User: Fold these one by one.
Assistant:
Number 1:
Amino acid sequence: MSEQNLMEKIISLCKRRGFIFQSSEIYGGFSSCYDYGSLGVELKNNIKQEWWKEMTRFQENIVGLDSAIIMSPKIWEASGHLTAGFADELVECKKCHHRFRKDFLEKDKCPDCGGELTAPRKFNLMMKTFVGPVEDNASVAYLRAETCQGIYMNFMNVAQTMRLKFPFGIAQIGKAFRNEITPKDFIYRTREFEQMEMQWFCLPKDAEKFFDYWLGQRLNWYYKLGIKKENLKIYEVPKNELAHYAKRAVDILYKFSFGWKEIEGVHNRGDWDLSNHSKHSGQNLKYSLGQEQEPFYPHIIETSVGADRSLFAFLCDAYEEALGGRTETFESTKEKEIVLHLDKKLSPIKIAVLPLIKNKPELIKKAREVHQTLKPYFAIQYDEAGAIGRRYRRQDEIGTPFCLTIDFETLEKNDLTVRDRDTMKQERIKIDDLIDFLFSKII
Ligand code: ATP
């Protein structure tokens, strides 16, 4: 399978099976905006839930937050986002007028028509809006470009209300917006996206130690959720390419079909944010560890993942295409088969309940009973339409780890067949033991 082909295949699967749709499609689409369909939203929610569990519940000293998307514009002045710090260099072709990010270009000529390019000019990425009925300078506000600023705004509130022991962390998941010059590669680079960020506040002298610790933790999270080791690597960002707030940055890269690309950044932000917000707001954001020590600005280690980019990586990593078809007990096929080997925790649907054949009311009745019993516990589908092999393949294609088949033996022995998506092995399980069995496999 050619690399370009893989991307097209994933986009086609996403549309065909209801993972991701182009936004505003009936109006011809709206560039770089995507909608998550019924399976896509389940997958994304599962990714967010795994991240949230890992970064809050499994930790002793990290708590969550959900701050506003639109905040005081003064925040973005203090953070450096409204100045040259958060701007890309834009060039335009003098002939075809297409615009490009200068650092993405390999040559000095237009990649579309070979025309001459203009001199680069700075282009700020903040998305502007107006708050209130009058559209004047006083009502200008911005959609947040990163979720972490909401965390810094609430750093003292959280520290005081949650009585956290230092060092501690605050985690947040939410939308962020950037007016990207060249959004591209499906959901990889869009103007509206979701971030999952954790900010770790520590002593300045411990910052490097925690940087390495969190980088290791974050890599492990991907491995635990099944990303293949050979498809992940890290990139130490050279000093001259660091973002305006960063003292050190390491990107976690995934091997997409269009190259090694960043899906997460781990940053040492030093005291950039807290000291600048103190200066601009006039509020004291220094932290005190007790009488005998001078108050200080905690240094911040940030882990920042794109929910959409990581979802894209999980999909690419899980995708398998078996050209001659995989062997089935019930039906062999020469058709192409697609299997998504997603980690069970991430699969949008965990279980499919399938009566062996449709026109036997006793089987349908039993299958519906099993479906009702499991429904409160798992994301589940019931499917009675078509040959059983075809129904298995429909589930394989969306990554459902278990298919339960109700057959005539079920009526006699009160057991059923559990088929494993990856091994295609089938085992008989008593219906009375089913919930325990499935919990042990999926959770
Ligand atoms: P890039 O260099 O690709 O523009 P960045 O280094 O500016 O990314 P960060 O500011 O470190 O990105 O943001 C942290 C994470 O947020 C990124 O690793 C990525 O997963 C996600 N992210 C950033 N920009 C976008 C975007 N335009 N579309 C989708 N996800 C994004």
Number 2:
Amino acid sequence: MSNRNVTVVSHPLVQHKLTLMRDVTAPTSLFRTLLREIGHLLCYEVCRDLETTTVEIDTPLERMSAPKLEGKKLCFVSILRAGNGLLDGMLELVPSARVGHVGLYREPETLAPVEYYIKLPDNMDQRLCIVVDPMMATGNSATAAVQRIKDSGAARIKFVCLLAAPEGLANFVETHPDVPVITAAIDRQLDDHGYILPGLGDAGDRLFGTK
Ligand code: URA
């Protein structure tokens, strides 16, 4: 898919780590570590255009003007539960970020998202909001979560995932053309159960060792 609002992070480190995660033999501990590490790398990419201001500081040698992040603290929103795996890595890079959570599960028959939890920081209208979920499959959860976040007043939103299916990405971009998507890969297709192919299986189960 070619869309100026979709960025595929083709950095070799991201691609290498993603390959290790896809491998069915990767144990839970490795999967978790790799997701956190990719969280660092995707965070670096999504924060590329954060605004900075200049402050005066003293180095041990002289006074200088130096750049510093400007504006209200940014907000990460994790879509439960697999979002927390990416969130951990991103918080290590931006420890002062505020954090929101949206809990959605997929209704097994229709794959429609059902919200069971939401908690967001205040002043969402003044923050850049970065929504994280490793898997954009049908795009239904991502689309619903972003709508709830918009309803809370957020005007600047970006979406970070590890894998996207073309069908889900098209759905998301059509509904939220104003929200840039940053992903490590766009896979081939969805299967009949809404899983991404070739994908990496159920990200939540692989992250937390549940089945
Ligand atoms: N959620 C997952 O964890 N994996 C998929 O392939 C699709 C949705």
